[in-house]
Amino acid sequence: MPTTQEARAAVATASRRLADAGLLIGTAGNVSVQVGDLIAVTATGTTLATTTPAEVTVVDLSGSVVSGDLAPTSELQLHLGIYREFSTGAVVHTHAPKSTAIGLVLDELPVLHYQQLLLGGSTPVVPFHPFGTQQLADAVRTALPGKQAALLANHGAITHGATLDQAVENALLLEWACTLYLDAAIVGAPRPLTPVQQQAVLEVALRTGYGTPKPLGKEPK
Predict the structure, then answer these.
(1) pLDDT tens digits, residue range 201-216?
(2) Full residue range of the structural domain in which residue 47 is found
(3) Which residues pair with 35 in a beta bridge?
(4) Which of 83, 78, 93 is nearest to 23 (CA)?
(5) Would you name the residues annotated as active-site residues?
(6) Residue 213, in any domain of the structure
(7) What biological process terms from GO does the record include (predicted)?
(8) Which element (helix H / strand E) includes 175?
(9) What are the start-end ranges of the E strands in the chain?
(10) What does DSSP assign to residue 147?
(11) Which of 19, 109, 131, 137 can bridge 24 by disulfide, Cβ–Cβ 3.0-4.6 Å?
(12) Bridge partner list, 38
């Protein structure tokens, strides 16, 4: 298990990576990772593109600060609600432009590409609630069973994963899927994969070990 200082450094690195990818602008967005019974989370008011470990605060699951000199993000309850409800290791909240755009229009992002199955299939859009409120935290928690991502209406996006890297990759994948939808909508109404098609992809993925490196000569049949 990493130390809290290592966790703070990892959160800072992840924040800068998300900012470099264009998913975080200014002080908008927040990142956290769980370390045992503690959570390392970005501090409020910090610029995510230049986040340092000193700008990451450690709290317990009740939200009490354990270490750090800065107050945690105003979305702390959003993060804590996910950790309390689900078996997950990290949470990423962004104001990514394409994800935010989809949340202005749709009630759900359908599955256009099989890569979205990694996020749990279609992505729900959580009704609008002001940031930092318990109502928002509760609504997100209600939307996430079986899902690795949700869109927040007129706000942004939330993803989680077993590891911090996975939560970041899920945020990048969600932004890619939202971009795909918007690009396709320029040409016409996007055509989602049917449930039967999605199941067929899952069966192939399980049979072939899709997404896992394989030594030569060990390809599944």
Answers:
(1) 999 988 887 777 878 8
(2) 4-208
(3) 38
(4) 93
(5) 75
(6) no
(7) pentose catabolic process
(8) helix 164-187
(9) 30-35, 38-42, 56-60, 65-67, 90-94, 108-109, 123-126, 149-152, 156-161
(10) -
(11) 19
(12) 35, 60
φ and ψ of 138, to 5 deg: -65, -40
Task: Round to whole Å and give the CA distance between 73 and 183.
Answer: 33
Q: Are 92 and 24 a contacting pair, CB within 8 Å?
A: no
Asked whether residue 80 is domain-assigned, the answer is: yes
Three-state DSSP at 155 gives coil
β-pair partners for 42: 56
Residue 8, Cα to own-chain centre: how many angstroms? Answer: 18
- Count other C-beta atoms under 10 Å from residue 122's C-beta: 18
User: Does residue 117 contact residue 59 with C-beta atoms inside 8 Å?
Assistant: no
Number of structural domains in the chain: 1
Cβ atoms of 53 and 47 within 8 Å: the answer is no
Q: What is the pLDDT of residues 12-57, one digit of tens each?
A: 999 999 999 999 989 999 999 999 999 999 999 999 999 999 999 9
Instruction: Give domain status of residue 105, yes or no.
Output: yes
From the centroid of its chain, how far is CA 167?
5
CA-based max dimension of the chain: 56
Give domain status of residue 216, yes or no: no
Q: At which residue do the structure tokens 């290592």 appear?
A: 6
The Cα-based distances of 124 to 108, 174, 182 in angstroms read 5, 12, 16
**Is the dihedral angle over the CA atoms 169, 172, 174, 176 positive or is it negative?**
negative
